[in-house]
Amino acid sequence: MAQSGDTISIEEGIYKESDITIINKSLHIKGINYPVIDAGMNGTAFAIKAEGVTIEGLKIINIGRSHTKDYAAILLNGSQNFTLKNNILENVFFGFLIEKSDNGLIEGNRIEGEGIDQANSGNAIHLWNSNEITIKNNHVKEMRDGIYIEFGKNCKIINNVCEKNLRYGLHFMFSDSNSYIGNTFEDNGAGVAVMFSKHIEMKKNLFKKNWGPASYGLLLKEISDATLEHNIFEDNTIAVNADGTTRVEFIENDFKNNGYAIKVHGGAYTTSFTRNNFLHNSFDVGYSGRLNDNTFSGNYWTNYSGYDLDKDNIGDVAYRPVKLFSHIVNQTPEAIVLLRSLFIDIMDFSEKVSPIFTPKELIDPHPQMKRILW
């Protein structure tokens, strides 16, 4: 009975409904005191193919699982100018599944899955071929991926918390000109994966406790023209795993208590590390392949043991961040058991004096004597 522009208010209670479909009606569906929409494991709760739809204040639970269909709490296909705000989603397969939809706002939602295994879990917020979407102030946990974006442009991901997800806190591919600001990615299976994208801005994010034999805080794979500034990488197995980066700038980030702070593979070009803090990492930099035109300059290193005779807070001796032992561990991972031995310290010192196995061009010519404040 509702017409475009109408508001439907749903009173508090439990409603056992699924496959609620909205076509060609710009409706505002608003819950009062979080009414429960129980899909009864029968499939999708809301399927929307309309412009200007707003859904807010609902608690949606028990979304069906399938290996052939992508069931979601809210499925949008071909929708424009939508808003999904202040909803609670629990025991869902996919949370918000958004396809070919533009100019949307996803704000203030809480999404939780069962987090059993990847095969039976979907993504909390999943965007495909959707542009100019703002995702902010959401809390997602125990899904497969917290936020997934594929073929999405001009999106803003702001102040979200993604924790304890089975695979990635954030995962995006083929998605250009997006910004990620003020998010927390903590205790996920493999942190954040950024793949095959360009013109990326990542600022003021926290990457923490993404720990495991195949885990990292941030994976960069075939990324170009990106800026990473004022991020904190703490307690990750590998803070940044860079494979195929071009014109990427790391400016004033903190790398603290990681296994590897930076691990660079072949194919990295014109990547710069400027005024970052490398604090008590097991290895500051691991490097495979040639140095190319990548640079380290003006960083603070807790392992730097040089001096500053002219008192300008810049070390008078250049710092070599790649240790011989990190080269050995790359070749023979089992050697990590020798990490704290005196023999390794002596071996690293001899390589620093006369580099043979590590890239002799890879130096920070202006190491800072004091931690950089930003």
From TrEMBL:
It comes from the Bacteria. Residues 108-306 form the Periplasmic copper-binding protein NosD beta helix domain. InterPro entries: NosD_copper_fam (IPR026464), NosD_dom (IPR007742), Para_beta_helix_rpt-2 (IPR022441), PbH1 (IPR006626), Pectin_lyas_fold (IPR012334), Pectin_lyase_fold/virulence (IPR011050). NCBIfam families: NosD_copper_fam, para_beta_helix. This is Periplasmic copper-binding protein NosD beta helix domain-containing protein. It comes from Planktosalinus lacus. The lineage of its organism: Bacteria, Pseudomonadati, Bacteroidota, Flavobacteriia, Flavobacteriales.
